[in-house]
């Protein structure tokens, strides 16, 4: 009765009814439900995705880690074959929160690393221009270069290219906040 009209809710309720069933039966019902979701019209891709998300959450919270992993793969396989082409979205659903946080941290770390690398390169360029044009740098200038941000370094590089004196570059040591 639940699947007579091929609705996403009907398919979800069918899987919910089988949540305590033996693994093999749950796997069969889950596969049938995923097939049933394929009967949805293409404009209901969001409903398909929400039902798949519900299946992933149900498995995660109600089955053992091994069953969750194996049955989650069944959902991913069905997503690969689905007319809705939501494979990447379903792969994201199956990730643990820890995995998502770790991936975000890695992306943030790479971005910070790139920014740090750009700053280091720009810092080196400013120092090279200053030394070639004006000779050895005073410790206060070296200290200011060591802590300057990208925008400041960029300004100093532009100024160093045309300044007549080191003082004209206007490198001032950063004052610590009070």
Quick summary:
The protein is an all-alpha fold. The chain is built from eight helices and no strands.
Task: Explain the layout of strands and helices.
Elements lengths: L7 H10 L5 H15 L7 H18 L2 H17 L5 H7 L3 H38 L4 H9 L2 H13 L16
Helix pairs in contact: 1-2, 1-3, 2-4, 3-4, 6-8
Structure description:
- The protein is mainly α.
- Helix content is 71%, strand content 0%.
- It folds into two domains: 8-94, no CATH class; 106-169.
Q: What descriptors fit this protein?
A:
single chain; 178 residues; mainly alpha; 2 domains; 8 helices; 71% helix
Uncertain segments of ≥5 residues (pLDDT<50)? none
Query: Structural class, please?
Result: mainly alpha
Integer average pLDDT: 83
Report the total helices: 8
Largest beta sheet, briefly? none
What is the CA-atom radius of gyration, in angstroms? 30 Å
How much of the residues is beta strand, in percent? under 5%
* Helix residue percentage: over 70%
The ordered H/E elements are HHHHHHHH
Shape: rod-shaped
The count of strands amounts to: 0
Distance between the termini: 71 Å
Number of domains: 2
